[in-house]
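Record format v2
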Amino acid sequence: MAGNQHMLRDYSLPFAAWELRLYLNSHPNDRCALRLYHQLLASAPCATYAHTDLNCSSCCDQHVFGALSHMDDAACPCSSNLSDLMNGWDCACDQGDCCPLRWDWVEDPWPWDGCCGSCGN
Amino acid sequence: MWIYKKQLQFPVNIRETNPRLAKAIISQFGGPDGELAASMRYLAQRYHMPHPEAKAMLTDIGTEELAHLEIVGSVVRQLTCRLTADQMKAAGMDDYFVDHTTGVYLQSAAGHPFTSAYLQVKGDPITDLHENMAAEQKARATYENILRLSDSPDVNEVMKFLRAREIVHYQRFGELLRIVQDRLDSKNFYAFNPAFDQ
């Protein structure tokens, strides 16, 4: 079990969050996916690569056990159907203001666009 | 800007020494359809992309390809880190050894050094996204060829993960292509570069 928890914390949860990031890049208005992404972040603060907090390993341990209890109840964490996957998870976004309406990672400007819209599209 | 995470995206723990297999797998390090070519292709194509979804996707997939480069390098390293001179000669790896010892060099399976000629930045988003979809298919086929050559369960687990990522990236690039095409000017649908003809 310790091995499974290690895999979940270090590989499975970060991977699930990363996979959702790619999906959200082409579906930035999919609130269902956005909620699941934020749920994963709440379960594993180390789960993202781009928003990484490099010093969060201790709080990660604490959160990952919460995530484990959710996963035990999940109908099928391996489901390819996002809706089925969502059924196994609480919605962190209903509890506060944490979940934006849109995946804002895709918003302009990007660093190479320069200031003042010099090369913006 | 990038931040490094001191962890592989997928664990690599290979118990055997197999220089012949390492020589095949190194093609995904610095070969024509390898992970470095993939990463550089996507990160270089970001600059002319007109839509924020495309900028985000190329940034993130280009970053993930760097993580895959690290995975492939780890596989090659672990397949050769206990290599003896006899094993090296028996596997026909002496030509590699004379130039690189057991270092991990950016080259194809046939020994060609990495070159940016492996990739294109056309400056036309539709052309470039088609190239990227083809690149993901070529990488998938390469991983399948490696799986045909390998009988190592430790290696195969890693190759299967990387193969699956090519399929997901192909899907995401297809969605980007749809987004870019949907936003074309209908009056210029057949001859219109949304990165240039504005």
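The CA atoms of residues 70 and 90 of chain A lie 8 Å apart.
Residues 2-99 of chain A form one domain.
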